[in-house]
Write a structure and sequence with these properties.
This protein is 39% helix and 16% strand. It has eleven helices and eight strands. The chain has an eight-stranded mixed β-sheet, sandwiched between helices.
Length: 275
Amino acid sequence: MGRIITIAIPKGGVGKTTTAVNLAASFAAFERRTLLIDADPFGACSMSLGFTPEKTKGGLYEVFNFVYSMTQVIHRTELAFLDFVPANVKAPQHEDRLQRLSENRTMLRNVLRQLVPHYDYILIDTPPFLRGLTTNALSCSDSVLVPMKSGHFSLEGVDKLFRHLEWIRETANRTLQVEGILQTMYEPHLKVTEISDRELQLRYRKHLLRTSIPKNTHLTEASFYGKPAILFNATSRGTLGYMELARELMGRHAVPNAAAQAGTPASGLQGPAQG
Ligand code: ATP
Ligand code: MG
């Protein structure tokens, strides 16, 4: 059964999308059957994977509107083990409608049910707020991965998210776990990093991941060229950081690679949508 991990924190620009795309690509590089779902109407995952509107044949928007099934909007990517479901929100009124539809918290859970056995990992990227799609994603996930821009003292976003997780556990998803807090854009030699590290250790030590992602411009450049960093510069510090993160998480979940499994390959599920 695939592990569903939502990447969330109610704070913008901290590396949620970068983490979703590059962690997904790293799992795929390790031959874990991986599905990345863009649950942010802004659609940044699409841009980071080179899915222009012409290459996009439907997405979460159509699934929530019952136009397509989830399998029909799975897009293949340049990586054999990575599939992708875009948000495909093209107009502001679509965004409003998607938000309204996602007030039904079981929406994603229902549409994901049939896919879970076919993947090792399902990663969900979310917008920088908690209502609607983020709540939907958290309600159907096994865990949440929390990116934090290093060197920022305010843990307000993490505190807010953790309060929200309590509510989700009480009302929708009793077993929701914290996968961990990931420090992104990490600059180890700065004084501010030292101070924020200390604060994080004090408050959230048990959730802090061993891996942190260094500040690395190749990650931004890669997304500009519509590629996960591993296909842009396989040896950049950003790429290696996300590979290390994948290794850390796989070590916990002990998911064997697909070559060792007899299950259906992810691509065997795909409908007409191709990227
Ligand atoms: P939003 O809340 O707006 O969706 P986000 O949390 O998804 O934002 P990203 O879009 O992943 O954040 O990252 C914000 C910016 O920081 C982007 O320009 C991205 O390329 C850059 N960035 C992310 N991680 C790193 C890193 N490790 N080193 C350097 N730049 C990074
Ligand atoms: Mg984002």
